[in-house]
Amino acid sequence: MSLEMTNTDIFQANLPARAILVGHFSTVGDVEVLRQTEQRLQALGMAYDVTPYTDARLSVDPSWLDRFTLNPARYTHLIVICGPFTPAMAVQHDTIFARFQHCVHIGVNLTMVESLDRFNPFEVLLERDSDRTVRADLSFRETSPSVPVVGICLAGPQREYAGRHRGDLAAAKLRRLIERSGVAFIELDTSVPVETNRFGLSNAAQFEAILGRLDAMLTTRLHGMVLALKNGIPTIAIDPVSGGDKVTRQAGKLGWTEVFDPDLVSDEDLSAALTRCLSKAGRAKACLVKDAAILSLADFDTEFEAALQVPAQPELRAHLIPKAGKVLEWRKRFKAWKRRRRAKTSH
Residue limits of the Polysaccharide pyruvyl transferase domain (predicted)? Predict the structure, then answer.
């Protein structure tokens, strides 16, 4: 069968109708519009295949086909889906548009950049917007399943724990949990000032405002766990220190049991913990932590006031002061150099 077919040839040959759906499919919105188009074709009983403009998108859906493997003679309709559309795009993606000339071309949810008088290669154009009309984006019709939203807050390198630090291992296990469970996630960082915060948060109020909207928190940081529980958010904590350290001790004090050793916790353990955290019972348990923690601190004000009355005992830290020597002298010179440099810069 010749690939240089006309529509008349197709209908005279009585070919079964089959559509090829093409587009960038590079955003979740694109994919939602694609799903809507697929549903319409399924309802009409028309067979179809999907191919993205570029190979990089093939990993989005294993059912999508490589455009180079397609036999154009199998298809009667070419449906172009979503995004801006220009004459240059037709030239750029000639592996599709040059090979499927014989198909009925239908544009769906496109933004037509050029005037339709100058450029409209479609037999039927159901555009999102052009110089003749504007439609609501087709993604409004797609109903996506509701999934939990979790935060992930990870500690950085902690040299003070030396060989016991397992931050990378703990982080990898939490990220695998996110991937396996299919939850939505938000990366969070407790660092201040804002210049050092990877996600632009500048204070505790912003951090906790996001926490309060989560279904669960996944963390290797003590304050990732503490501030989440303070806001009643169930938390899975992996202590980044082998054998457990401050995160494990704090969880024990709070009576929070979803804390794990990085070397011992399995993927199955974490999946079960996430199920518990996302349950009503898990949320209810987290909501009890704050009041119990505050109650346990009832004597702090008295203890702090008493601390201010204790006389100084310098001998407690005499051994911490380094003896005079080359290292100490170098430090003094370095600090003096930094002061001089700052003074020159300020002028």
Answer: 194-239
